[in-house]
Amino acid sequence: MLYALSFLILITTTLMIITMVEMVTRKKRTLKLRLEKIGETSKENELNELNKPLRERVLKPLFETTSAQLGKLLPQQGKDNLEKKLILAGNPGNLGPSEFISIQIGLCLILGIGGSFLIHFLNYENMRVLVGGLVLTIVGYNLPKLYLKTKTEKRQKEIQRNLPDVIDLLTVSVEAGLGFDSAIAKVTTKVKGEIAKEFTVVLNEIKMGKSRRNALKDLVYRTQVDDLSNFIGAVVQADQLGVSMGNMLRIQSGQMRVNRRQRAEEKAMKAPIKMLFPMVFFIFPCIFIVLLGPALINLMKMFLNM
């Protein structure tokens, strides 16, 4: 009995010592494991960072930092106007006002300084170097604006051209029993291009809690297309008055096609006037040379033989 009691006391004491040692060293071991994991994660992040191209490791952070500093110098009204132009252009490259200004200034410096050195290298006088550098600086500042304007016009024309087909699809979907939001979702899966992207944004805004009316009004603000503005106004009015959406869409579809045909007829009427100047300056002289050239040669030979 004494041996059994001594054995139990020994086991109990041993377990108590092991438990106390475990409690004392647990924090240290946990901290050590965490530090090892952090070290492994840091090594992986460092390797991933080194594997990235130079553009993402150096140029992109430098560009973002410079853009942020330049954005502080830009007045708020200028930022708002530039942001509106970027929205109308479809946010090319996901650029913000600060990044766009940075690109403008960068092009000014590159074209201005580089062009001045090139003109100087061609041994022109200092006045021409100065004028050439100034002209290239102005060109560098206006090139991004020209790109933005071209992008906006192209985007608006694409939306205007695809709108009748989109409204036809909306009409068919609504008459088949779908709701207006479901019909818009159907359009985003069947149609490609800028108008599908904009309708996708509308659906996402509605899912996040924005009312359909406000989401559609924001669509008008982002596009500034007259036909689309009229269509959205008709949709909002029909929603407010409880008018049948299918009848309204059918009427709007017919009206959009009439508008598209009228624009095509207008362009056709302008074509002869636009063709007049190339014909006068390029085509008619060639015709005169072909028709009157031999006659002039014969007349010259006749007068020389007299």
Description:
The chain is mostly helical and 306 residues long. Among the domains are: 64-154, no CATH class; 157-263, Receptor-associated Protein (Up-down Bundle), CATH 1.20.81. Helix content is 89%, strand content 0%. The protein is built from ten helices and no strands. The protein has helices at 2-51, 54-73, 76-88, 97-121, 126-175, 180-190, 194-207, 212-223, 226-241, 245-305. The protein is flat, with a radius of gyration of 36 Å. It starts with a helix and ends with a helix.
What's the structural blueprint in terms of helices and strands?
Elements: H1 2-51, H2 54-73, H3 76-88, H4 97-121, H5 126-175, H6 180-190, H7 194-207, H8 212-223, H9 226-241, H10 245-305
List keywords for this structure.
306 residues; mainly alpha; Receptor-associated Protein
Number of helical elements? 10
What can be said about the biggest beta sheet? none
Which CATH-level-2 architecture of the domain at 157-263?
Up-down Bundle
Coarse shape: flat
Rg over C-alpha atoms, rounded to the nearest angstrom: 36 Å
Helix-strand topology string: HHHHHHHHHH
Q: How many runs of DSSP E, i.e. beta strands?
A: 0
Mean pLDDT: 78
**Structural class estimated from helices and strands:** mainly alpha
Low-confidence stretches: none
Distance between the termini: 158 Å
Name of the top-level CATH class of the domain at 157-263: Mainly Alpha
CATH topology of the domain at 157-263: Receptor-associated Protein
Sheet-strand content, in percent, reads: under 5%
The percentage helix is over 70%
